[in-house]
Write a structure and sequence with these properties.
Elements: E1 5-9, H1 13-25, E2 29-34, H2 37-47, E3 51-55, H3 63-71, E4 78-83, H4 91-96, E5 101-104, H5 110-117
Parallel strand pairs: 1-2, 1-3, 3-4, 4-5
Helix pairs in contact: 2-3
Length: about 120
């Protein structure tokens, strides 16, 4: 598998650390982390990751807004939304979001991410 670069965006440092370890062990290259939407936008501009693993619920905004801002950039990354909550709790917002898909945090794996981003 090609080593895709990933930016992990989540407001919980513990989750970012565990997701980094898990994805790196499964062949992804974690380019960086961000704790909120503003930092995520800046990190994408600075690092140019292929994939953004984006928590739906952030301290300063929500992942849907961040995904829309990233989709409007000249070279948008593949966005995969994540949450501790079930996909059903987001309904149409999740379906309409400019993202490759959704992974519940408890089901995150390199295989699940690779299935969505190729």
């Amino acid at each position: 598998m090609a080593h895709q670069t990933v930016l992990i965006v989540d407001d919980h440092a513990g989750f970012r650390a565990s997701a980094t370890a898990l994805l790196e062990a499964e062949g992804f290259a974690v380019a960086g982390e961000a704790a909120d939407g503003a930092a995520a936008i800046a990190a994408v501009e600075r690092l140019g990751p292929a994939v953004v693993l984006l928590d739906v619920q952030l301290a300063d905004t929500d992942g849907f807004s961040v995904a829309e801002r990233l989709a409007a950039t000249s070279n948008p990354p593949a966005v995969v939304l994540i949450s501790g909550r079930d996909a059903a709790s987001f309904g149409a917002r999740l379906r309409d979001a400019p993202a490759r898909g959704f992974i519940p945090k408890g089901e995150l794996s390199g295989a699940a991410l690779a299935a969505l981003v190729g």
